[in-house]
Design goal:
single chain; alpha/beta; 10-stranded mixed β-sheet; two-stranded antiparallel sheet; 7 helices
Length: 289
Amino acid sequence: MRSIQMTDQTWACLLALKDKGESTALGQADPALSLYGPIAGARGRFVLAQVGQSLDGRVATPAGDARDISCPEGIAHLHRCRALADAVIVGATTVQMDNPRLSVRAVVGPNPVRVVIDCHAALTGEERLFHDGLAPVIVIRSEDTPGKALKAETILLPRAACGLAPDAILNCLEQRGLRRILVEGGARTIARFVDAGLVDRLHVSIAPLIIGSGPPGIALSPIEQLANARRPVSTLYLLGEDILFDCELKTTTRSLRRQGQQIEMADTAEAAGLTEHARAETAPRQNVA
């Protein structure tokens, strides 16, 4: 397990790597470069999914309390990921439940563009991110549900049988120069991108507490046999009290291959093929807004 000891110099070098492709001050043996270098150094499309959860895989209590799951170092990690990304993606339910800012506050760095997948035009426009002026906001909706005008750029995409295709979402963001993407929540949103084979790295930060019930961190489609489970190449990092799994999803064979089937952003949990238990859960939320 590698311990992250982030210094101001190391962080400045990572930001320079993102902006200019310069990383001369960091050696490959530095754990920080190993963890954050793939994000900062990506020049084409790069998708990182990040979730912070308890030992038993929960991101909040049933009542929605998600505060203080991650330790301060875990919170700093999430904000570093935001700072190194061009855009951060969340689902509309996450915005409705948490009213997040999705900005960079725990570290020094730029705020990403905030992208909200709002297929059914459920957002009211009163949510905080539309008015805080911290960074641009893009709302992605189905073209057959345009909804009310918001203080944000609105992108309308065609709705297929099960919703909005994750690849179409990434394509429209790439056309706007947004190539480094952080998918932050909730569980179903992360699952769509993972199931579609579009996530390069998955960060799962595990805090040493047991919640017992509440929404899960990721809600993937069910499998019947452990032989079909994904087994990604992973590196473990110590973030204060939390343990981070850095999983390389593109370097492992996907166990759930859907030959000839379009994987799309599902409108409902039923369309995503989730279990009855997962359908009963409320949408998960990151513990830091």
